[in-house]
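Both lines are given unchanged directly below:

***
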Amino acid sequence: MTVRVNSLAWQDTTDQTNPIAPYVVNFQTDPVWEFTTLGSWQSQTVVPGGVTIDNSNGSASVLVQVGPTTTQVDPLSRLDVPLPARNTLVTIKSGGAYSIPIEFFVRNSVPNWGAVQNILAAATAAASMSGLISCLATGTDAIALSPINSNVSITTYNDYQAFIFQAAGSNATSTVTIAVAGLAALPVYNASGGALVPNTFAPNIVYIVAYDAALNGGGGGFQIVSQSKLNFPNPYVLKFYQPGLVPANLPLIFDQFDIPVTFPANFGTASSGASSHAASLVNATLSATFSVLKCPAASDPTVGGNWSSVGTVVFAAGGHSASFSTTGSASVSFAAGDYIQIQGPGTSDATLSYVSISLAGDR
């Protein structure tokens, strides 16, 4: 609230040629009561419960009358004056006999500073308990989050409490943890509640994670609930079906990628939540290995030497499901234009037939 009073030309009537400069008064109860003047005295600053009058540069005393009480502020001094109550007449004038006073009413009640502080404290506490809390992140596999607002105090994790942050880098493992404000480091899960894969987090991408006490076997954890669209993983699934017996050394699938695709280590669960699968309607008699091959876009796919093995799909003897592996247990990336081939076993199995294989990655 501000009450403004028009500037008045104060002048000494005994010397009409040397008028005193005008005084402009601003009254502000929240948060500063300020008098700005070009005359002999200076300004005041509000503190809870009062105001400090600064006349340290003055050559004459200043009189401040609040209601019936008049306070004199001598030159070269400062004085604390109580804040006026509502509808109190305030008069300010110099100590000279010919000065013209400036008068105004306080139009609003002085704020209850203690109540305001309590309200702010309650709002801060509420923000700490729920809502979306902005944080700074450090670390990649052991991520530490610190609330950007220093007034937000996190003393415990609460269900569905959400934190937003920009990742500091890419995670190298699937066992990522997050610790907020020095609390316990808890595991992080993907949007489907499953384990992460390397590179789920990417540098400079914004993520939102929420605490869920039911995760981690009831020990609590964080689930990725959102991330910025930039670099947001979309599933890419490559499928094929071979009716009847599987021929030996036959390319069962041959394809060229028109967009970049990355398959997770050992063809596990992709960041998008999609998973690779393999099955057959008739069990294998012996172990049968299918090879996943890659040929760079710049190479000739018709030449056998340009193909390299990047993984396998193995049906165990007597089984109808398969295990997956990638070379070096690392993720496998295909650029736009690269070729992929899945080749059947070196020897045709006597019984393995009606085989379906799907490889899931992110694009």
Q: What stands out?
A: Residues 62 and 94 are 4 Å apart (CA to CA). The first strand starts at residue 2 and ends at 8.
